[in-house]
TrEMBL record, chain A:
Keyword Transport: yes
Keywords of this entry: Amino-acid transport, Cell inner membrane, Cell membrane, Membrane, Transmembrane, Transmembrane helix, Transport
ABC transmembrane type-1 domain span: 17-214
Source taxonomy: Bacteria, Pseudomonadati, Pseudomonadota, Gammaproteobacteria, Oceanospirillales
Protein family membership: Belongs to the binding-protein-dependent transport system permease family. HisMQ subfamily.
Name the record gives this protein: Arginine ABC transporter permease protein ArtM
GO molecular function: transmembrane transporter activity
Entry's localization field: Cell inner membrane; Cell membrane
Organism: Marinomonas arctica
From TrEMBL, chain B:
UniProtKB keywords: Amino-acid transport, Cell inner membrane, Cell membrane, Membrane, Transmembrane, Transmembrane helix, Transport
UniProt name for this protein: ABC transporter permease
Transmembrane annotation, as ranges: 12-35, 64-87, 93-111, 149-174, 194-218
InterPro entries: AA_ABC_transptr_permease_3TM, ABC_transp_permease_HisMQ, MetI-like, MetI-like_sf
Species this chain originates from: Marinomonas arctica
Sample GO molecular function, one term: transmembrane transporter activity
Localisation: Cell inner membrane; Cell membrane
Lineage: Bacteria, Pseudomonadati, Pseudomonadota, Gammaproteobacteria, Oceanospirillales
Gene Ontology BP term (one): amino acid transport
One GO CC term on file: ATP-binding cassette (ABC) transporter complex
Organism domain of life: Bacteria
Amino acid sequence: MDFSVVVEYFPRLLEGAWVSIQLVMISIVLGGVFALPIALARISPVAWIRAIPFAYIFFFRGTPLLVQIFLVYYGASQFEVVRESVLWPILREPFWCAIIAFTLNTSAYTAEIFRGAIQAIPPGEVEACKVIGMTKTQMYRRVLLPRAFGIVLPAYGNEIILMLKGSALASTITILDLTGMARTIIARTYTPMEIFLAAGAIYLVISIVIIAIFRQIEQRQNRYLGTLSIKVPDKG
Amino acid sequence: MIDLHGFGDQLLQGAIVTLELAMCSLFVGLVLGLLGASAKLSSFKVLRWIAHGYTTIIRGIPELLTVLIIYFGATSVLMAVAGLFGYDEYIEVGAFAAGVTALGLTFGAYATEVFRGALQSIPKGQHEAATALGMGPIRKFYRIILPQVWRIALPGLGNLFLVLLKDTALVSVVGLDDIMRKANIAVSSTKEAFLFYLVAAFMYLALTIISMVFVSYLEKRASRGLTRG
């Protein structure tokens, strides 16, 4: 093996890594925004309101992300209506198709995480807030939301890592993310092992950084627990 | 519409390949997971390091990249090894073999953690009781430890299998004729992308539902010793 190609093409790989990070950041933020209403609808007392997010979550968690990306990128353009609509400039771009597919996918997973966190807060804490005489806004702002945030963190960190790994699929619709860039370089140099291993190492470094950041936030957020460690149910 | 322009049976053939791939990877993954968990709990530092490195690297790299590395890498590694023995014809690793290796490695890394947790949750008394009855380490493992580990690990392994089932779609990228690639072929000749990818999605969904039913049956079966008290 000859690792001088890695040195030569390292800047290109970093360019690809930046595209991957952008994909992950945009879809995580948008996915988080969509996930909250989905999670709230999922725990609604009305049966038919509950059914819609259930079907949505079931579909996006039960089918491969690759199928979802192809459905958005190749599938949408099958219809004349879509090609003539105002959304076409967006749906024509592979980057935005990947963002749409990733956002839909991650919002389904994140909604389940949020639901778990909301349901994990003991009812005693809600009662305690009422006894002290807090208004509903005060209760949410001071107790419930910070508490849910602390519970959500570990699972949310996992979800971002899964999203980072899922973002490699963007390379299948011609996006030059880290994997896509690696494949392009390999087509030119024909050194698959060296370049793929280098790309793998970059993914590993990004995951480690994400894990470290989340460990910091978690410690800060859950500092009131002192030395106690709380158990958060894994998603899945 | 029903026979999907004649591609219906093609997609079903793809489903069989997908299932074969999933089952073979499951087998490889379970073996690797048990080995990995034993290594992580071993008293040899070197084994612990190897297992730790294995799970960290595999879990930190995208599954697609693992598939690509195995598919393209295995060829050059095998050819280098064969070259040492004086064989210099071109060797190609099939997409199926590469897929089983890559997905088995991935499943094994996650299963290592599941098995490790399950192994650690078996009370020490169980080991001692088995030894007191005169069982050797192998018999103790098969008769006492494994059935209990199986029961505790099953829910976690079931989730991992659902992930594995979806990951099989990635092997279509290196040319395996699974559901996904059959759908690609159908799309390129009929231009009805939405229809065929939606059908593919529902086929995966059906496989997911069947697996979920099967796993819950296994879970009931594995814990029948508990419900009888």
